[in-house]
């Protein structure tokens, strides 16, 4: 049973097929060889050079022809024997795979090619349509086209000439492959391309109602039984034909008139004055534009020259400044070396003065272990101080006054160390002997619970819980200050509760060193205190003379003035209570001046003040 589709009937009649109905042309089974009417394996078998050695090997071997009927294996006399593998007699049977691959590639290259075609109305006419080039194939599906917009002589024609050009893959020139004169009325309708074995160089024509070919017979089905449909009458068709003829005549008349007008224009002389005037105006515009461009270019050139001149001046000034800077750098290098040396000497002196000051502080505030006491129990100025713990057992040995005095010494020593070590305390200390305070200005404290940020370094009277807490917090702040001073000297504190051990450790490290400790300059402190006492005595004499204000010491209304007034009034009251009058007071004042007088002349004396290791000579 054939697998072809059920034949159908074409819509166009044979006499109605025109070029305007043609939409595409395809080519199948490209072949460059001429057409042969016989097969290659029948006639040339016995004369083939590669087959003769095979024929001589066995007399029973005979060639098979495609026109003969081969016997079945069951009728052979040796049918019971197992079938043996037939010997391969191909020309590529005894070659290596590389040669076989090259041979196959050569066969493929010989069978493929590049193809395009052209359509003509006559053999000598120009092409109506030229297709695109399809490369490296044996069957070509060219693009569809439309000839409906062409002239009526082309679109209404039913005959054409098709010419096919081909080129092998490695060739440079095109060769003429095929030329066919086709009458569309003689084409055979095939309907489909499925299950079709096309001959070499077969042409397939695609019309608007189906596929046509010259190599296969028509497969047209019988017309279906359908009711008749009324079509246009003869008179209507004649009217359409007359209308089309009239349109064509009008187009021809239009073309003729256009040619006549063009000829008249060519024969008449051309007035070029208007064109010349326009050219002159355009040239004037070009000249004006060019002049404007020239002016802009000149201005830009002048600006660039001015910019270059200013840059040259700036470069010259910069070079002068650079030379001056190099000179200054050369001079400053010497100054820098001297300054570095002076800085090193100053730092060495500062370190030496700090060592001396810390050594003096160690002597002024001796911190020694308590005899017959637990480890890490120390006393300052022979006043024992526990390690941040004051409970009932400690209170039996150390009273509250002794504890407050010890904390006052520690606060005084810590407050002075911040100046000598140049490191401010995070929690400032206000020293008032045994009634000192520690102030916390950086912690976030609740205003409801803590009304003041000053915490006492002494136990309050009455033993209140809030007072006890404020005292313990003040002691904690003092220990934090000591820890901060130790950290400034790169010392690690194991336990901040050990106030005196940490302070002694700090003084020991700050006073340690292999260099000699610089000596104190003599006369400095004595002259300082003599000047202070002499100033106080002058204030007392002014008070006894009846002066109501201290002119030499402080201004009226200040705190120092009030303190001086109170001190002077107290001294006057004490003298009067002892029975001395005003003259006695003056005599007593003079006696004090004699006591406080220096053992050498004031005019030739020179006092020295020292602050944090720096010396300043003041002539009095």
TrEMBL record:
GO CC annotations on file: endosome; lytic vacuole; phosphatidylinositol 3-kinase complex, class III, type II
Annotated spans, Disordered: 542-563
Q: In the record, which residues are listed under signal peptide? A: none
Keyword Coiled coil listed? The answer is yes
Question: Which keywords appear in this protein's UniProt record, sorted alphabetically?
Answer: Coiled coil
Q: Which residues form a coiled coil?
A: 240-267, 329-356
An annotated Gene Ontology molecular function: SNARE binding
- Show the InterPro entries listed in the entry: Vps38
Q: Answer yes or no on keyword Secreted.
A: no
Which portions of the chain have biased composition (kind: Polar residues)? 542-552
Protein name (database record)? Uncharacterized protein
